[in-house]
């Protein structure tokens, strides 16, 4: 295993494992891909470590991993994460996908536009339904029927989706009850609707940068087709027009240069 927080990171939305996932690869690459695919998240999949655990040398592994990357199963780069001191730092990432992805999919993933894996199926009685059904045991005046629990459960689920805890919900539903409670279901519906907390702020998109599999130069996905920069592919950079660049393009380029310089200073970060 790699150091905590590093190593293999599975991409979301992969298809179920089959015996033919890597049949499109040459035999050596297919064997290495199948081995990496079965490693758990967090496993060290660097060339040096794989050379110790597979029958292939580092040169063969480096070539094979580059071909696996070109086939859309692997991307390597950096991602900004929160540090223990409250700040942030850039760390090495090796993103793995059993399902082959094209450059467009990886570009969306790097921007955080690919949805994460769906949660596992819920049990027959949801957390919300169980909470409502238990109200009558602690507060008899709020006893509900099974049908009433089913109707109110979606409202409770919305509270949970907005970050509310069970303690917060119980306080909102049971504090200051009138005497008597004529209609428990109507009262709870009113409180669940009127006291609904605001939605949480939208999560910030991840900050990720790919790196060329050959030279390690950081760049945006569009500049690294197949995970390799155009220079290493032997392609010439597109000619720039004589017209001056707009200010937005200058600021963007300056930010890319600063990010690249920062990554170069952090080359000592473990893989």
Give a concise summary.
The protein has 271 residues and is of the alpha+beta class.
Keywords summarizing the entry:
2 domains, 271 residues, elongated, five-stranded mixed β-sheet, alpha+beta
What's the topology here?
Blueprint: E1 8-10, H1 27-38, H2 47-53, H3 58-70, E2 74-82, E3 88-96, H4 103-110, H5 127-138, H6 146-161, H7 166-174, H8 184-194, E4 208-211, E5 218-219, H9 247-265
Parallel strand pairs: 1-3
Antiparallel strand pairs: 2-3, 2-4, 4-5
Describe this structure in words.
This protein is of the alpha+beta class and 271 residues long. It has 2 domains: 8-113 and 205-265, no CATH class; 127-194, no CATH class. The chain contains 9 helices and 5 strands; from the N terminus they run βαααββαααααββα. The chain has helices spanning 27-38, 47-53, 58-70, 103-110, 127-138, 146-161, 166-174, 184-194, 247-265, and strands at residues 8-10, 74-82, 88-96, 208-211, 218-219. A 5-stranded mixed sheet has the order 1-3-2-4-5. α2 crosses α3, α5 crosses α6 and α6 packs parallel to α8 (184-194). The longest helix is centred in the C-terminal third of the chain and has 19 residues, at 247-265. It is elongated, with a radius of gyration of 26 Å. 20% of the residues are buried.
Name the shape in a single word. elongated
**How much helix, percentage-wise, in residues?**
25-40%
- Taking the alpha carbons of the first and last residues, their distance comes to 11 Å
Number of helices: 9
State mean pLDDT (0 to 100 scale).
Answer: 86
Task: Please tell me the total number of domains.
Answer: 2
Count of beta strands: 5
Radius of gyration: 26 Å
Order of helices and strands: EHHHEEHHHHHEEH
Beta-strand percentage range: 5-15%
Largest sheet: 5 strands, mixed
Uncertain segments are none
């Amino acid at each position: 295993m790699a150091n905590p927080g590093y190593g293999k990171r599975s991409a979301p939305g992969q298809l179920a494992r089959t015996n033919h996932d890597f049949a499109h690869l040459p035999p050596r690459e297919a064997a290495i891909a199948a081995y990496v695919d079965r490693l758990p998240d967090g496993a060290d999949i660097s060339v040096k470590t794989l050379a110790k655990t597979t029958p292939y040398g580092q040169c063969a592994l480096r070539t094979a991993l580059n071909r696996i990357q070109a086939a859309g199963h692997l991307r390597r780069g950096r991602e900004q994460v929160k540090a223990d001191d409250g700040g942030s730092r850039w760390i090495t990432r090796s993103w793995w996908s059993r399902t082959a992805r094209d450059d467009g999919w990886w570009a969306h993933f790097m921007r955080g536009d690919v949805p994460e894996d769906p949660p596992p199926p819920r049990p027959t009685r949801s957390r919300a339904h169980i909470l409502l059904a238990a109200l009558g045991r602690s507060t008899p005046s709020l006893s509900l029927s099974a049908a009433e629990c089913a109707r109110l459960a979606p409202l409770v689920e919305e509270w949970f989706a907005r970050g509310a805890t069970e303690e917060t919900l119980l306080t909102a539903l049971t504090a200051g009850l009138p005497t008597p409670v004529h209609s428990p279901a109507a009262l709870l519906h009113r409180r669940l609707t009127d006291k609904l907390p605001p939605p949480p702020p939208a999560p910030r998109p991840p900050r990720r940068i790919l790196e060329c599999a050959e030279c390690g130069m950081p760049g945006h996905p569009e500049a690294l087709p197949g995970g390799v920069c155009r220079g290493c592919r032997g392609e010439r950079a597109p000619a720039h027009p004589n017209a001056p660049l707009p200010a937005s393009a200058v600021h963007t380029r300056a930010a890319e240069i600063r990010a690249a310089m920062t990554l170069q200073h952090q080359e000592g970060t473990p893989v």
